[in-house]
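B., you asked whether I could sanity-check this one before it goes into the benchmark set. Here's the sequence:
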Amino acid sequence: MDKLANPSPGFQRNPDKVITVEPYRGSVTVRAGEMVIAKSTRARLLTEPPYSPVFYIPFDDIDFSKLAGTEHSTHCPYKGDASYWSIVPAGEGGKNAMWAYEQPFDEMTEIRNHGAFYTSKVTVEATPD
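And here's what the prediction gave me:
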């Protein structure tokens, strides 16, 4: 097996952990109120039991003109360091509503340049094909 350049310490400690990333067959729309923040037919669905599945949407399908980067960050031992964006027109309710792993660990490169949204802060509508 090839040696990874940026291996996940989480998978090294817990090689039985399962995180799947699969293309979502359909469209995903993210709204803050009536405002569309993202719309994609190229979303990926990340499943990591026991957590709820999460849609990761390509950066190209996200309207960054409605977002502003924040100083907030978190760390996942499986995925890496997450950066956050707020939905500016949503005010306080949109604070840190989107996150992304811009430099994920090697095992999670499928979510690089993709953003995910907190369903408590936005409405995520998924329509299967």
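One thing to flag: Residues 9-13 form the longest helix (5 residues). Otherwise nothing jumped out at me.
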